[in-house]
Specification:
Two copies of one chain form a homodimer. Chain A is mainly alpha-helical. Helix content of chain A is 67%, strand content 0%. Chains A and B meet through helix 1, helix 6, helix 7, helix 8 and helix 9 of A and helix 1, helix 6, helix 7, helix 8 and helix 9 of B. The structure holds a DNA duplex.
Amino acid sequence: MKSCPRSKPGKTAAAPRRRREPRIRAIVAAAEQVFLERGYEAGSLDDVARRANASKATIYAHFGSKVGLFRAIIGEKINEIFEPVRQGEAHHAPVPIVLHGLGTAFLRRMLSPVVLKFYRLIVSQGTQFPELAQTWFANGPKTAIATLAAFLRERHASGEIVVATPDLAAEFFLMSLRGVLHLQAVTGLIVPPFDKAIAAKVSAAVEMFMRAYAPQRVTQRRGR
Amino acid sequence: MKSCPRSKPGKTAAAPRRRREPRIRAIVAAAEQVFLERGYEAGSLDDVARRANASKATIYAHFGSKVGLFRAIIGEKINEIFEPVRQGEAHHAPVPIVLHGLGTAFLRRMLSPVVLKFYRLIVSQGTQFPELAQTWFANGPKTAIATLAAFLRERHASGEIVVATPDLAAEFFLMSLRGVLHLQAVTGLIVPPFDKAIAAKVSAAVEMFMRAYAPQRVTQRRGR
DNA sequence: GTCTATAAATGGATAGAC
DNA sequence: GTCTATCCATTTATAGAC
């Protein structure tokens, strides 16, 4: 049976880029779902074709192979997913307040269904797709740490905190934030909503961080 | 359809357990390799049979299905793998020294090939095999944290450190220890040897921990 | 470009001989 | 208990019509 006849493309100048035929967009959307939901190995092209109301032949015509489809879809999705992370905003509140806000947003995002699925995918397929792992790491964890480190560096300069190694401090904070909560969520041991757990974890992490990096200390630490 | 041949009643005094026919042992060993190396989905029973010099029929006779084999093999392997974690030893050195030793051992283990493969497996299959995720979490992270927390509690009592919430402090320390290093290793972005990176990470984490939990503080912080 | 139909290979699972 | 041989569903990939 014929599928719904869609209006043939006549406009190609409106959208910035990402201007593609509806069939391809449907395939992309379906592939995202399938791969994120079932993983690379278990996700089949039959499944993708079915959800996209397309045929496998069309998929192959545009992406060449399963590997090609996976690379294209996931590579693109990475950039889309981690876009919010790159938005480094200027914060002027006291450090603990800012950390609380950043931490909550960060942790919420880490534990969102789509990011959890993404994590499972990268962890299980990272060694098979090095360039995807690379992109993921650069756009995700690395950028998050760099952003927080920049903030810490500022506040160190203003004397509000004492951080000799901002990148390390940022890493510690973010990792403490994830904590066991992330392990439990990613393995399905706990399920949403996580709001209560997130709030508790953020408060505890901020408190620990401030205890470690607050300036008012008597210890005769080395200079600097 | 035969079910899993569990522990046979009889001589369970001499040998701890593991009293089985050589064929089964070969299958178990092969299955461990295959599943840890290629994952659950990609790992095939043909592959297992080949490496075990056995036939698929024999596998089915003893384990019933692929799922059954996986559950049995991985469930058993978890207990074997994380046995060292449970060895809570008594330490009498100063806290930073002990943390350094524990941290190094812990991180080394976390980044060992087999534990990394295990992590990939649990992360990707955790939601499909809840009881495995449960066992893994209880024997791994949870036990590690509990062990460290017990140590911290002792030293808190002796006044050497000030930890109001030992479990949280232990979690923070261990998570800070893993840090980005673990992410990079698990996704294949970096490869062994990790010794240099481990040493650096441990020192930094211990320093941070002591800064946060050392007792010599001016607690004139308003509020607290 | 997109479809139907099919090839070719793989993998989970079983029957039946020994 | 273990093997060989086979079944059958699924899956990647392609050929050829429209």
